[in-house]
Amino acid sequence: xxxxxxxxxxxxxxxxxxxxxxxxxxxxxxxxxxxxxxxxxxxxxxxxxxxxxxxxxxxxxxxxxxxxxxxxxxxxxxxxxxxxxxxxxxxxxxxxxxxxxxxxxxxxxxxxxxxxxxxxxxxxxxxxxxxxxxxxxxxxxxxxxxxxxxxxxxxxxxxxxxxxxxxxxxxxxxxxxxxxxxxxxxxxxxxxxxxxxxxxxxxxxxxxxxxxxxxxxxxxxxxxxxxxxxxxxxxxxxxxxxxxxxxxxxxxxxxxxxxxxxxxxxxxxxxxxxxxxxxxxxxxxxxxxxxxxxxxxxxxxxxxxxxxxxxxxxxxxxxxxxxxxxxxxxxxxxxxxxxxxxxxxxxxxxxxxx
Amino acid sequence: xxxxxxxxxxxxxxxxxxxxxxxxxxxxxxxxxxxxxxxxxxxxxxxxxxxxxxxxxxxxxxxxxxxxxx
Lengths: 354, 70
Hints:
The complex is a heterodimer.
Chain A: H1 2-27, H2 38-48, H3 62-77, E1 84-85, H4 89-106, H5 110-118, H6 123-143, E2 152-153, H7 161-175, H8 194-211, H9 215-225, H10 231-248, H11 265-282, H12 286-294, H13 298-316, H14 328-347
Antiparallel strand pairs in A: 1-2
Chain B: E1 4-7, H1 15-25, E2 30-35, H2 38-50, E3 54-60, E4 63-69
Parallel strand pairs in B: 1-2
Antiparallel strand pairs in B: 2-4, 3-4
């Protein structure tokens, strides 16, 4: 009983901590309501590497590097680091592609969705409703026996390549080689100082690794098991960010004029439905995928690569929304994504005997 | 007493718990769940304890074997 309460306190505490850090990052220069956003920041990274050429959203975000390295160190010290993979890697890659597209039509991953809500962005309420609907649909598949099947133990060195890549990106960030792209205007140009962002990432990564913080897991476990454990993390992020937003005067309730957001409710809903459903199949939200990647789960690394590819496609094909609104291509891509993810769901669900 | 055996090694969240839930629904009073990471261990134990099971875990090489008893 006591370990149960301790676990719930840990996830609540790391949620509050993450919410506070996110608002502090806005204070130090990140875009409003975007102190942390796994989808946006992976997209910025894909842009920095030149995989897409959307000039306002190109930056090698130190937060991503920090989260991975922080989670890696925490996992290493606590002996959670373990190379494993082989559970439907390509289906995960493609699901990652569509999760990213859904997130970029909404304009945020589940983490940023909560941060938007905590900043008073009421348009994100429709995103939340869509996300909950997607997670709920995914939970029904799980109850019916959905599985990507098991992963397997891999060579030990497999666990080190993803964190090593982040170290390389960190070197890039300081050296700024000419082949990288850094936004001069737009959200990509708005960022906290490198060392602050890196430190923030390291702390959030370590906290999320220890607490298993997951934005999709809260609603999922409440739906399947009536277990609110991970919901505390969700609420913690909201509460922590809300309080600090009120203190800093960042809280501005309303639908229109919200930073890096649009008011197209239907597509906020459907974009986040796609993210919710995909996240349940993947075994966690984009933040959780990043943490699992740092712990040596290379299926999650493949998922992150899929998300990077999805970000590149989203900007190259004009799928991503902007403050000006959604795009026709983006809507079509979300519909395709929902159809694809449902097919994935049906093909991987075997009704259990008895 | 023969244990109801569940092999949840290598499964993504929350499959180990879904598999345990199925075992609990079959009214098994002794369930043995094999997992291979501490997240699955903690999740399965938390779930089983909510259903009134006493939980014990022991390491078996790379794996963790959880005994859930009513």
